[in-house]
Structure formats: structure tokens, C-alpha cells
Write a structure and sequence with these properties.
Helix content is 41%, strand content 12%. By secondary structure, it is an alpha/beta fold.
Length: 328
């Protein structure tokens, strides 16, 4: 049985790049998409040059304009962005038949059994990145055994400098040594070895069977938790997934509810999380052929009634209705 492999494609600049890829002048200036949040304009998507100016997603526009007076902004068009993401979903269908939309800026692909068609996982991911470069899109990828782990790797980089909260002088002197050891251990679980060239920094691959180990290096925010849950865990000194994993499950559920444990189990693989494939738009069409050309209005109307009758049967069977009808 094939080991399940899940790929997360995150487009962190989807909002701005949907526009700037068609307007090259915006590629050379600080550019941001803003949304209305409680009667205040907030940055929701930033270009590369806007980030270089020190701006960040979630920042108030008034504060951003102080730091970057030449910032160009455009209001979010949620419908256009959703349509664009659905277009990318159809594009990703050439790499896997199982592609689903994750949130507003990401796709999840089940590439189990598909990688051999592209010469291996690394070649597949390099092909996807090259396609995104051609489409003028920034993409970050995470590949792992579960949806949660792939999602986390696409957005978080496993730290090679573990947090040292307390310790004696011997512990302080040994930090550099342990940090090097920590990095060597991490490299055992990530696919970092170059084959035909260095792997892009936007691509992170967890080796099969190493999901739980690699997750232990990541912060608890990589579990797709709410801001409130992240804040509460941080206040208790729970910073990494490893810190959370060693705690008694009963006490976690009593204090925080079941969602944190559910996300943890999904990421590690103890609880399944299915991927729903995209459902293609159904085309309702009927046609009629004539042995000879027709031109009389009466004949045309008779033909239309026959077509509408056949179309009605299809719509009833599918439980659908008509908003627009084209006669050709």
C-alpha cells in the first residue's frame, strides 16, 4: 500500500500578485491590498517591496503610510480572488486528481502515486515552482504524510536554535554545541540533499514516516489553531508542538477543549483528514439535428420547444434551474 503524501501550496502574495502580474509597473513599487476591518483599513496582502519597507499583514493602513508614504493600495476584491484561486485549482489538477482549496490563499494536493509520472517528488515540486514563476506567482510548498504537517511546513521553518529557558553555566556554555547537534538531527528528517541542484528555500519536504519528528521542531501555531488558542498556550510556556505533545491529553482537553488535540492528531496522522476533490461545473446542453436546413419561424419555434423539453428533464434529474440560457 502506498504511503500517503500530501502537498500544500501556499500563495502568500496572492492578493497583490493577482493584479501585479498583469500590471508590471506594480512589481517595482510598494503595493498592498487593504480590507475593511471594523471601519478601519488593514493590510491583507503585500508585495515584496512593501515587505522590504517593514510593513506586515494585519497592519493598519494609517500606520503603514507613515512608514511608507509611497505605498500604493487597492481594496480587496474577494470574489475576484476566489475565482483566481479556483483557476489555480484547475491548473493544479494536472499534477493530481485530488486538489482542494484551503482557506483563501492555498491549495492542498494528494500526490500519492503521482510522483513517478514526474520523476520523483523533488522534480514534481520543482516543476510546480517553475510553473508559478512563469505565472508570476510566489509559492511556498510543504510536503509531508498529512495535511496538517504539509500545511505547517509550507508556512513555518523548523528552527535549528531551540529555546533555552533556564539552566546552569554548563548548560549555557553548551548551547552552540547542542545547536549544531540539533541541526544535524533535523537534517535527518528533512529532504535537504541536493540532487540536480540546491532545493529552493520555498520548498520543504518531510521524509516519509518522519511527520511526528519534524513537527516537534515547529511552533504550536503550526497546528492551524485560533489566535486565542495560540495565545493561551504561549502564556503557559507551551511554545513548540513537542512541548504540547508531552502533556497529559486529559488536562489539555479540560482546559482548552478538544480542538487542540484534534489538530494535533490530524497533523501527526492519528486522525484522518480527507481531501475532497473539486467538482467540475456540469454543463447542461441539448441539441437537435435536421435532415434539411430550416428557415421558417414556425419550424424554429417547434425545434426550440423540443430542445427545452429535453433540457427540462436533465435539470429536474439534477435538481437544478436556469439563470441564463443560450440558443445557438
Amino acid at each position: 500500500m502506498l504511503k500517503k503524501r500530501i502537498l500544500s501550496l501556499w500563495f502568500p502574495r496572492l492578493g497583490v500578485e493577482r493584479i501585479s502580474r498583469l500590471k508590471s509597473v506594480l512589481n517595482e513599487v510598494p503595493f498592498a491590498i487593504v480590507i475593511n476591518n471594523n471601519n478601519s483599513l488593514v493590510l491583507s496582502s503585500l508585495s515584496y517591496f512593501a515587505e522590504k519597507e517593514g510593513l506586515h499583514v494585519g497592519q493598519f493602513l494609517t500606520d503603514a503610510q507613515i512608514l511608507c508614504p509611497n505605498l500604493i493600495t487597492k481594496e480587496e476584491d474577494i470574489f475576484a480572488e476566489n475565482f483566481f484561486l479556483k483557476t489555480l485549482q484547475r491548473w493544479a489538477g494536472k499534477f493530481s486528481p485530488l486538489v482542494t482549496i484551503e482557506g483563501q490563499t492555498a491549495l492542498i494536493l494528494d500526490i500519492t502515486g503521482c510522483v513517478n509520472l514526474f520523476g520523483g517528488e523533488r522534480n514534481l515540486l520543482n516543476k510546480i515552482e517553475q510553473d508559478c514563476i512563469n505565472m508570476k506567482l510566489t509559492v511556498k510548498m510543504g510536503l509531508a504524510d498529512t495535511i496538517g504537517a504539509a500545511w505547517a511546513l509550507a508556512r513555518y521553518e523548523a528552527s535549528t536554535n531551540p529555546m533555552h529557558r533556564t539552566g546552569d553555566s554548563i548548560d549555557q556554555e553548551a548551547r552552540a554545541t547542542r545547536s549544531r547537534s540539533y541541526k544535524r538531527n533535523l537534517e535527518n528528517y528533512l529532504d535537504l540533499k541536493p540532487v540536480t541542484g540546491a532545493l529552493s528555500p520555498n520548498i520543504r519536504i518531510a521524509l516519509p514516516g518522519q511527520t511526528k519528528t519534524i513537527l516537534s521542531f515547529l511552533p504550536v501555531s503550526a497546528l492551524r489553531l485560533s489566535k486565542k488558542e495560540n495565545s493561551e498556550l504561549s502564556c503557559l510556556g507551551i511554545h513548540t508542538i513537542k512541548d504540547l505533545e508531552i502533556l497529559p491529553r486529559g488536562s489539555i482537553e479540560r482546559r482548552f477543549g478538544f480542538n487542540i488535540l484534534r489538530r494535533l492528531d490530524q497533523a501527526i496522522g492519528r486522525q484522518s483528514e480527507p481531501i475532497s476533490p473539486s467538482v467540475p461545473n456540469t454543463h447542461f446542453g441539448v441539441r437537435i439535428a435536421f435532415p434539411d436546413p430550416i428557415g421558417l419561424e414556425e419550424d424554429i419555434m417547434i425545434a426550440i420547444k423540443r430542445l427545452l423539453s429535453s433540457l427540462e428533464e436533465k435539470l429536474i434529474q439534477n435538481g437544478s434551474g436556469i439563470r441564463r440560457l443560450t440558443l445557438q
